[in-house]
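Why this split exists: single-chain examples teach little about how molecules sit against one another. For that reason, every record in the complexes split bundles all components of an assembly together and asks for one structure covering all of them. Below is a record exactly as it appears in the raw files.
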Amino acid sequence: MKIAVLPGDGIGPEIVAQAVKVLDVLRAEGAKIETETAPIGGAGYDAAGDPLPDATLKLAREADAVLLGAVGGPQYDALDRPLRPERGLLRIRKELNLFANLRPALLYPELASASSLKPDVVSGLDLMIVRELTGDVYFGQPRGIEVRSNPAGGSERVGFNTMLYAESEVRRVAHVAFGIAMKRGKKLCSVDKANVLECSELWKEVMIEVSKDYPEVELSHMYVDNAAMQLIRAPKQFDTMVTGNIFGDILSDAASMLSGSIGMLPSASLDENNKGMFEPIHGSAPDIAGKDMANPLATILSVAMMYRYTFADLSTADRIENAVKTVISQGLRTSDIWTDGTQKVSCSEMGDAVVKVL
Ligand code: NAD
């Protein structure tokens, strides 16, 4: 398996180094893993004047999976938009056709006090949101701002976007979501706004059609406004959720905060063949970069997702996740999740602890 390793900027290199230590353990045990590192984001701009250098994109295309740290930093904020680090990230997702974004929201019971919700509401939370990533109102045409005549007379500027999904786009993300639900609790909630939007009406019809291929999965539907409320009221009612790009953008950010720390949450973005890019959901944290303080667990858990979804090696995925659970239960904490009575460790010490358990 060839893995393209793209550390990026800020804390990216520090956290990715810990995840690479995990890969090194697996390699030492005989796993055939090859890694190659390349710059992306600000590092890509510094190296080649482009946040997604051609050589990096070529490596990512040829690899079986991509492991990414994070991109961005204040020193790049004044660059023209196409040269900014975040553009490199958007482009690689689009170029690799990574249409299914998987974001787990999982709360380790020991970290329940870190959540802004009551511990009994979130303790033991284990939810997966599947968000369609390359369609919807973010990409639909036409879009723009133009001057139109006003029915009351005169004219004024209007802004418009098009919410658009082709059946095939809904179908492919539906298959990913049902496949994931099959491996989890066999309950899938499709979130839409079919009471108002034709685009959602089609989304719902296709979900029902695809559900016939997965008779073991219990499919339910929820309007997005209710889903937002239910996620905060009683998040443990959900097992797997699937939704479009804009609804998923908002719901997955809300869900990620249920679990307290941004430093704990991994993500995967998959294409049609389950090739994927795996990255923590947080950014490059310039405020703590270079201080060996960042929490590397989201990145290490991203490696577990790589094993689960791209390499289909569930036992290695479980092993990595269990190693993370063990270090948490041993009381080891980076500063973002530290509380009285637990042991504060650095980024590299946390990586070493996971390696030791493995
Ligand atoms: P951020 O996620 O980088 O940081 C938000 C806060 O969380 C900071 O206080 C930071 O110290 C903390 N934090 C983040 N990750 C942590 C970790 N692993 N361990 C401990 N603490 C952690 O978000 P931001 O500050 O809004 O953005 C900083 C830069 O990152 C910006 O340039 C932004 O564009 C970029 N960004 C990149 C991505 C990505 O690469 N996927 C995502 C979001 C933001």
